[in-house]
Amino acid sequence: MRWVMAAGVMLLAGGCGTATAQAGPSPASVSPSVVPASPPASAAPGWVATWGVAMTDGGQPFTRQTVRQIVHTSVGGDGARLQLANTFGRTPLVVGGVHVARRATGSGIDPATDTAVTFGGKATVTVPAGATVTSDEVAFAVPADTDLAVSLYLPAATGETTRHPLGTQNNYIGTGDQLTAATMHSVETSSNYFFLSGLDVLNSAADGTIVAFGASITDGLDSAFGANHRWPDLLADRLRAAGRTIGVVNTGISGNRLTADGKDGRGESAAHRFERDVLRRTGVKWVIIADDPLNDLGSRHPPGVDQIVGAYRQLIARGHAAGITVICSTLTPFAGADYWSSRGEQGRAAVNAFVRGTGSGCDAVLDQDTATHDPAAPTRFLPANDSGDHLHPGDKGMQVIAGAVDLDWFR
């Protein structure tokens, strides 16, 4: 036996690699299970991440409610497991049950596929404040390019919740325990994801996972709602069409910055969340570092280019130290956007020059700038690529970005 520290919680680990959280008592009516420690990505042969989101603070509280969340897979597998995150919670999170099923329409599921998820062999789990837990393997065949519904019953008051604010997808909240309901009743919808941070699949033929790491452009803001038209989704489509079995996980956070933490859903800085949102993702072999610096350049007190470049170099070095191929993206044009300035434009040009330069340390360059800008006005989007706010690409722009990715990078 040995003691280890995970997410600020002291854990007792045995020879089998499991751990028991030493948390305070939970409501007697719930009987929470002992939880296993989340395994490092490198310790899970055959597992890859097929879906995931980056988590932030500021989520709504729940009491005696069921949350059914819709996830879209990039690759399939013969088994599944889920990650639940209480990263920003101030108290232990009590989960009274978790089910996964194939989605039908809306909040509806295919009852024949409804499957209970366990943690340490038990149906309930308590996640310590600041921690993430991984479920047991679920005997569930996961198809690629498919919507699954993951339902969580939350029997006790959660307080402010850990969430992903921009799901570009309706998720469903209902009163009481509706874990097995074929269609939920009396629901409200939310585009947030709550507590659910990842879905892994067991697929020995998979080559690994790509993590798209950035801000609102990566997150899919202004792409068609519910259509899975974010550029990482479209990249996953291209990979499948090419016969490649590679997971794609989107850890973009709208409003996120490279150099500074944000609140109210904007997320910790790229440097502070890189470990959680890239290095700890299951099966990760490649990362695409994208649009965070645009929010630095558009801020009221923007950092200097040297600071932005220094932060880039740190992320690149950390990725390489973990054996990950680092693909750097140029910054898209944003002239005409609310926070554009001539100083910001000069910064964008300097950052793009660094990314394209031979001394950057990047293993490849995704040139989102060249792919999306208007050749006649390079500081602006080509109108067909613009969502209309001059900062975020629309669906056509998302397609152009995904199309600029060289699939030969993923070998």
UniProtKB/TrEMBL annotation:
Specify the protein name: SGNH hydrolase
Q: PROSITE patterns, from UniProt?
A: PROKAR_LIPOPROTEIN
Q: Which InterPro entries match?
A: GDSL_Rv0518-like, SGNH_hydro, SGNH_hydro_sf
Q: Which residue intervals define the domain SGNH hydrolase-type esterase in the entry?
A: 212-400
Mind listing the UniProt keywords for this protein, alphabetically? Hydrolase, Signal
Q: Which GO terms describe its molecular function?
A: hydrolase activity
Under PANTHER family, the record lists: GDSL-LIKE LIPASE/ACYLHYDROLASE, PUTATIVE (AFU_ORTHOLOGUE AFUA_2G00820)-RELATED, GDSL-LIKE LIPASE_ACYLHYDROLASE, PUTATIVE (AFU_ORTHOLOGUE AFUA_2G00820)-RELATED
Signal peptide as annotated in the record: 1-21
Tell me, what's a Pfam family for it? Lipase_GDSL_2
Stored SUPFAM superfamilies: SGNH hydrolase
